[in-house]
Amino acid sequence: MHSIPGRRLIMGLFLIFLLLPIYWLVNMSFKTNSEIVSTMTLWPHTPTLQHYKRIFTDESWYSGYINSLEYVVLNTIISISVALPAAYAFSRYRFLGDKHLFFWLLSNRMAPAAVYALPFFNLYSAIGLFDTPWAVALAHCIFNVPLAVWILEGFVSGVPREIDETAFLDGYSFPRFFIKILVPLIASGIGVAAFFCFMFSWVELLLARTLTSVSAKPIAAIMTRTVSASGMDWGLLAAAGVLTIIPGALVIWFVRNYIASGFALGRV
Amino acid sequence: MDKTVNQKAWFLVLPVFLVVAFSAVLPLMTVVNYSMQDTFGNNQFFWNGVGWFKELLDPSTDLGGRFLASLGRNLFFSLVILAIEVPLGIVVALSMPREGWTVAACLVILALPLLIPWNVVGTIWQIFGRPDIGLLGYVLNAAGIDYNYVSNDIDAWVTVIVMDVWHWTSLVALLCYAGLKSIPEAYYQAAQIDGASRWAVFKAIQLPKMNRVLLIAVLLRFMDSFMIYTEPFVVTGGGPGNSTTFVSIELVKIALGQFDLGKAAALSLVYNLIILIVCWIFYTVMTNAGAERKVQAESEPAAEPKPAAALKPVPALKPKEGVA
């Protein structure tokens, strides 16, 4: 690929721009609160692990991470399992209303969460799911299921149709063909779709916060608690923030070549 | 590659339809219901017809004024960030290293901001921009610029915009990079033989090839910035005053803050309608572009080489090697 003059400089500057705020957060998380408030230091002069220790030992803190992971994993499983057959149908068949349905799914991916916050609150209170991981997992389906369908449809279309036909000629039933042949063939696609469901559920806060109060509260909502009578506990806030970045940072590596296609709803 | 007509495919789509209908149609019916009614509390509702909608679209009322002001702010915000992020994203994509381990490193660092929970993005910039404890705020103030995003409107706007550029430019860059990677080396060689300038190569080869991904990038960025809530809410809380109150923030204020169900519902519907219209334009343009590509590929197969990161390769139609 042919690049532009000065590309190293541009790239370097942009990466610094991206990393500097994150560095500042990490830096703060290792400082004591007195150091944060009293002096401006570019690196922690008296490094401490007290904030991380507090998060890992205080149940009200680490339970937030567990709650978040719980609904994120639930949501990923629901999204992928309902999206897989649909992706196959959209990729292989034409049926009544298919194009409209596809558009309707897309429009739900774009729907603003703020519109749904209140009706979801009513809905899940009415069916007794309020303040459970299920409520958040189902609520996040509104944008994750369409995304999963769009991504998986692209991957299923990449599998030549001859494979289906051969399998059916060999006497495979549809469910057996689906599990034994199709799923292994698009395993990487399923991985990518799962990653994106995981990610979008992990970064969303408005719905997750609205649908929980005590027992299923996500970590992102618990972070607001650092405001206390003695002022903000900046170090603790920073440490909690750093810990929410880690899961994403760990899995990026595995999907780095597919990131663009996932963000483009499987359309690159 | 014609798809076969098979109505039984509906059975495969049914689970998706049910799940999404449960979380989209059902709540939306409640919203429609609320938008036509008024309440005096105690769960006693009475019919209000289109009263809320009239109020919403009339700038002289309190509700209408707030809605239209936040809508204006939101549109302005979306336009500004598109104007910054799209060119910047293209430049960054063009600056990607060609090969080696640096490619992977750049990709991972670029993707990092996209994977941070949105309220943590807000927290990062809240901390980074504070004049007392943040590097940015401290440096700016030390340089003699009176910067404080809590009390100054313009500073708050600049902070929110820079934050969004930080958060989402990578998305545009990654999409453009994927588009650029699909250009075969032969195109560049041909350009070199013709003695094309750097700018000509960009205009005649790279930009047309990025068309499709750019379309997706522009519309994703427009949509997501149009419904932005968490990040500015954490940093500025919609302030100072109402200067960074976007539509979503206004809506949550009315719905969950004041519990003004009728007003919130009417606002939700109008908001949703705008999104739906933009979405429809996007979908139409995109499917048309897709159809055009197919026609092109059929008539002159050599001009349509197989993209490297393609998710939808159509092997029968697209020979791998082009003669271009």
From TrEMBL, chain A:
CDD domains: TM_PBP2 (cd06261). Residues 65-255 form the ABC transmembrane type-1 domain. Its main location: membrane. It is found in: Cell membrane. The chain crosses the membrane at residues 9-26, 71-90, 102-122, 134-156, 177-203, 234-255. One of its GO terms (cellular component) is plasma membrane. GO terms for biological process: transmembrane transport. Keywords: Cell membrane, Membrane, Transmembrane, Transmembrane helix, Transport. The keyword ATP-binding does not apply. It is a multi-pass membrane protein. This is Carbohydrate ABC transporter membrane protein 2, CUT1 family. It comes from Bradyrhizobium shewense.
Automatic annotation (TrEMBL), chain B:
Keywords: Membrane, Transmembrane, Transmembrane helix, Transport. It is found in: Cell membrane. One of its GO terms (biological process) is transmembrane transport. Residues 294-324 are annotated as: Disordered. Residues 71-282 form the ABC transmembrane type-1 domain. The keyword Membrane applies. It holds the Pfam family BPD_transp_1. It is a multi-pass membrane protein. Its main location: membrane. GO terms for cellular component: plasma membrane. Residues 298-317 have a biased composition (Low complexity). Belongs to the binding-protein-dependent transport system permease family. PANTHER family: GLUCOSE IMPORT SYSTEM PERMEASE PROTEIN GLCT, TREHALOSE TRANSPORT SYSTEM PERMEASE PROTEIN SUGA. This is Carbohydrate ABC transporter membrane protein 1, CUT1 family. It comes from Bradyrhizobium shewense.
